[in-house]
Specification:
This protein is mostly helical. It has 3 helices and no strands. It starts with 10 loop residues before the first helix and ends with a helix.
Length: 96
């Protein structure tokens, strides 16, 4: 990149804009895909997991005040994941 210095203030806005445009075109690509709607939902999340794990690993909190999770925390986490996954599958099914 010859002579191009990114403006640090505009970089998050640019990323947000590109992500919004990509998200807006997702239903079009899903509609004309030959895979099943459940398979599409699975692979969208499966391919996103490594990215989010890397982001979470890089953004570890520096404080040592750790809260030990309880069974209620895990139950809420699993329940919210199941509900979110069902919503994604229903959204993909509605496109077909």
């Amino acid at each position: 990149m010859i002579g191009v210095i990114p403006n640090r203030k505009s970089t998050p806005i640019t990323a947000l804009f590109i992500g919004t445009i990509a998200g807006a075109f997702a239903p079009i690509f899903i509609r004309y895909c030959d895979a099943s709607s459940v398979g599409i939902a699975f692979w969208r999340f499966a391919l996103a997991v490594p990215v989010f794990v890397l982001i979470g690993y890089c953004n570890k909190p520096q404080s040592q005040n750790k809260i030990s999770p309880t069974k209620q925390h895990f139950a809420a986490l699993i329940l919210s994941g199941v509900i979110f996954g069902m919503g994604a599958i229903i959204w993909n099914v509605s496109l077909f």
